[in-house]
Amino acid sequence: MNEVLLIYAVALLLAWPLGRYLAAIYSATPTALDRVFGPVEWLIYRAIGVHPLAPMTWKEYGKALLKLHLIIGLVALMILMQQGWLPLNPDGIEGMRWDLALHTTASFITNTNQQHYSGQAQISYFAHLFAIVSLQVITPAAGMAALVAILRTAFARRDETALTAEGAVSVGNFHADLVRAIVRVMLPVAFITALLLAWQGVPNTLEGARIATPLDASAGLAEQRIPVGPVAPMVAIKQVGTNGGGWYGPNSAVPLENPTPVSNFVETIAIVLIPMALVFMAGYLTGRRRLGVLVMGVMLSLSVLLTGINIWSENQPNAAFADLAAEGPNLEGKEVRFGATATALWGSFTTQTSNGSVNGMHDSFNPVGGASMLMDMFINATFGGVGVGLINFLLFLLLAVFLGSLMVGRSPELYGRALEAREIKLVCIALLLQPLLILGLTALAVAIPGLAGNSNPGFHGLSQVLYEYTSAFANNGSGFEGLGDNTVWWNLSCAVALILGRFIPILAPLAVAAHLAGKRVAPTTSGSLAVETPTFAVLTLGIIVMFALLSFFPVLALGPFAEYLSLAG
Amino acid sequence: MKQARSRLRLVNAHTLARLAGESVRRLHPRWLARNPVMFVVGVGTLVTLWLTGADLLAGRPWGFDLAITLILLFTLLFANAAEALAEARGRAQAESLRSTREGLVARRIQGAGEEQVPATALRRGDRIRVLAGELIPADGEIVEGAASINESAVTGESAPVLREAGTDNSGVSAGTKLLTDSILVEVTAEVGQSMLDRMIALVESAKRQKTPNEIALTVLLSALTLVFLIVVATLVPFAAFVGGETSVPVLVALLVCLIPTTIGGLLPAIGIAGMDRAMRANLVAKSGRAVEVAGNIDTLLLDKTGTITHGDRQATDFLPLINLAPERLRTAALLASLADPTPEGKSIVALARSRGAVVEADPEARFLPFSARTRLSGIDQPDGRRLRKGAPDAIRRFVTENGGSYPDETTALVERVARGGATPLVVAEDDRVLGVVPLSDIIKSGIKERFQRLHAMGIRTVLITGDNPLTAAAIAAEAGVADYIAEATPEDKLEYIRREQAQGRLVAMMGDGTNDAPALAQADLGLAMNSGTQAAKEAGNMVDLDSDPTKLLEVVEIGKQLLVTRGALTTFSLANDVAKYFAILPAIFVASVPAMRTFDIMHLHSPATAVLAAVIFNALVIPALVPFALRGVRLRPASADVLLRRNLLIYGLGGLLLPFPAIKLIDLGLGLFL
């Protein structure tokens, strides 16, 4: 338990200064580091031929964002399908089937890293470096850029709305926001993390697999191939960029990705570091520190609550051991070296932040633990993915502003700007998409025989399918596993959930922010809804929980809860 | 009388029958389609009805399906009845006003003569003659003459009022009665376009336009309805996958329970009732939006006269300068005020006479009548003496223009009077100041408390007065307003409104005169007095039939109440869903998935009674909340944070908890029979 508190505390203590640093980056305050990063950024701007100061409307910003993802997606798709004859392939891995390559591409351009393949066996070094790791660096930066655009447009305390030359509302410059995030945040933070991991023994080489001879001849194995590669940098970026896609199939449960208690500590903190820092950043960047406190308060409450449930659940015995003399925590599918608590903590963090890396098998969690992680992903706004988690939170905040304003007798306003039918429509589209895709696709998959390919029937089978689509839509990437998920159906349907679940919840709030910024600002009086108060925090928290529960209570009841209750007898 | 009219009588036997008929009539798909939430209920009702029929024909048990069908039907009827009830109340209010003008005959001026035409034939711009004892046939403006009019038909106030051409009180309303004299009126509204007609349109569902905020809320409610459609539809394959069975009527019941029928069903009624409340306060809004905006007002510009004070400022004393005989000041003040017909002027004359002044005006004298522009009145005596009485700065200008000086003593006196909250008028003769006349005004009782309520709600109050800054400050302090505009001209008001708006504030003001029109039009909420000129009434977006300056305060509260009612019932509606899940989900699955029994935390009698109890609760909530919808939730003045906390507790937490005992209770009742 002390370990859990320590990790929360250290993560928050590191996130705070990082948040200040992020705010400084995005308010373009001159810093000493400009001399290091400035020229690098300048080179990148020149190389891609953009002007980093040109203001963009939300449409231009959104288009630039989509264009970037289209290009890097196409490149990744080509590499994955053609990796067989591309260089840096010492183990002779073949190109991917089209549907798997499509799913993998969709999964990595959406910062999800849902894997229907096993990295060490199905992806070459070249593909890992250029298709996987580079996307793991770019996509969180894109999410961060979108968040910053939204914050500065609709939430920042400022006298005048920034405009483009044509007089439309400007949300900033996508290229500048993206490149700054990559150069000044993702790469340095990942670099430091990678050094820490390499120090702990995570492999970092371009050589091929190691061959080992087992000491115990009775194993019946003449030699064992141990795949290695540039693992440390990838593990670092997968942790800090809420990516989650590991080098090895079992992710950070494998000793080569996560060798020691220290590496586990580092990796656990790395999961939440940037998502937490972005909350601190929001307070500094907008000049509304109390907004930052509000967001942090609500997110932290949700995080502690759901993590607490998960840790409690995993410290209960596994139902299969019910009649055995030795009772203990549920260690099925967990590394004994980490134990139930550390695995549950990781499981909660990774689902709360839409990271998706694992150090244990979520499929083997007790039902209540599994439900808590599903809840994490339904909410998807407790810190959440880099950038997008906070964007999701802001969507709920807008809903809370709408209801809260009515309840105090005012037409809904966010910081004095009217929230009208047009904005509510966009918010609703983003929110409606979640039950539509998660429940709709799950329903299709379980309704059509042979489609799901479950390893389990009944309640648990339903949970598996639900988890897969929830993970896809939340851009989480973790898997309940136990699904034969490398099929055309799974690859395509997940790709749809991945892409819609990524871009609609980014573009709709961006549009809302730009619309809001174009409106007249009314001064705040004691009669207007005060957003930065404990009461409003409670309202926001209530709306977040209610929305998730009302949408998913029936399926949770039929899946994990029914399983729990039938196991409990 | 006003009291009696504004009391809320929900239903009596006669209206109940009409209401029932109206509720059935509104089951028409075209009506239902206007409201997405209730439309889904309508479709659900048809589905269960069809299933009931199919069961009946196939010889299967059909009682349960029929029960669900009937409850859903009643859900629809209750919602329709709520809307019809709100509409009927609003319409009755409007009709009682309209009835006064039916069958009226007008004398239309035709060339040199007059012709008798029915009032309905009048067009805008027509001129009509009205004689004493007649009812005024159309809304209009007096272009010639002055008369005293009984407006009780419109305002419920029986004391006659004076209306006069060319003044700020030249507007007349159809249905009011001319008591004296004869006037020439220019018709200002086409048939069907009069204020009353517009007002009636606001409370008729068929014609009513949704307000912006209502549209936004409808979008949200529609989205929630879609979410629950998805939830319920996907439940079928989920249940099948885990080996459970689902029955369509139960699923329809679950869907109807989950979608926000409470707020969906009451939303139109809330909107109409808001307009109706405005109307009961004798306010005519030109659009629903105007009432909604009222809730958002940040700044209220209030005329001192009539709003804050009783408005009849009376001269209370004569304060001569040292070395001046009091009689001289008294006489001069009296003479200079003869041409001032305002209550203030008259009060000076009256005070002077009561103190023994006996002087009469010389027939040869030339009068300088009081005007709001010059802010002084006076008399030029045949002997060349020019007496003036007026605002201190006007007199100062007069004295200095005549080569005299404005002594410090006067300034000191003026300040002393002003600091005491009275209005100083200065009396001068040619180049010499004679003294000061203080006019005192009495602050209305209870007005200070009222302002405190407004301040608690975050509304700035601004006093507008023609008084000098010192008097204005004294009154402002006494009444507790936040700011004041002293020596205000219509331009000052307009300027002030623009300044406030530039800072993003929404401004409301009340006015009656033609020169108020620009400011009324500029204000976000311009409330024109019915007694005012046509220009003022057209510039404003609301008209107060009572011409009561304090009405602005009521408008704000009505607007706020409208929004709070919507928000509170939405929260309540959504919070209710939790209990309904706990009632229906176990009922659906308990047979096939025994583990689900654990969720039956209410320990309901049987699956059938559980489902029925939830649907019945869902239906009954609508009529139970009709009084809330029609009266509006109680709005106690408090800061937004306090309001939010209170409403979250009552409607959020209350909405979460209340259905549990309620559903249990209904289930207990059903258990006795089933």
Question: What is the strand and helix layout of this fold?
Answer:
The complex is a heterodimer of chains A (569) and B (674).
Chain A: H1 2-26, H2 34-48, H3 58-82, H4 98-109, H5 119-122, H6 125-155, H7 174-199, E1 210-212, E2 224-226, H8 231-240, H9 261-286, H10 289-314, H11 339-352, H12 367-379, H13 388-407, E3 413-414, E4 417-418, H14 421-447, H15 458-473, H16 488-517, H17 534-568
Antiparallel strand pairs in A: 1-2, 3-4
Helix pairs in contact in A: 1-9, 2-7, 3-4, 3-6, 3-16, 4-16, 6-7, 6-8, 6-9, 6-16, 7-8, 8-9, 9-10, 10-11, 10-12, 10-17, 11-12, 12-15, 12-17, 13-14, 13-16, 13-17, 14-15, 14-16, 15-16, 15-17
Chain B: H1 2-6, H2 13-25, H3 29-32, H4 36-58, H5 63-98, E1 105-110, E2 113-118, E3 127-131, E4 140-144, E5 146-150, H6 152-155, E6 161-164, E7 171-172, E8 177-178, E9 182-187, H7 195-203, H8 212-241, H9 248-258, H10 261-280, E10 283-285, H11 288-294, E11 299-303, H12 304-308, E12 314-315, E13 319-320, H13 326-337, H14 343-354, E14 366-368, E15 376-380, E16 386-390, H15 392-401, H16 408-419, E17 423-429, E18 432-440, H17 447-456, E19 460-464, H18 469-479, E20 483-485, H19 490-502, E21 507-511, H20 517-522, E22 525-529, H21 534-539, E23 542-544, H22 551-575, H23 577-589, H24 607-631, H25 640-657, H26 659-673
Parallel strand pairs in B: 11-19, 11-21, 19-20, 21-22, 22-23
Antiparallel strand pairs in B: 1-2, 1-3, 3-9, 4-7, 4-9, 5-6, 5-8, 10-23, 12-18, 13-18, 14-15, 15-16, 16-17, 17-18
Helix pairs in contact in B: 2-5, 4-5, 4-9, 5-7, 5-9, 5-10, 5-24, 8-9, 9-23, 9-24, 10-22, 10-24, 11-22, 13-14, 16-18, 22-25, 23-24, 24-26
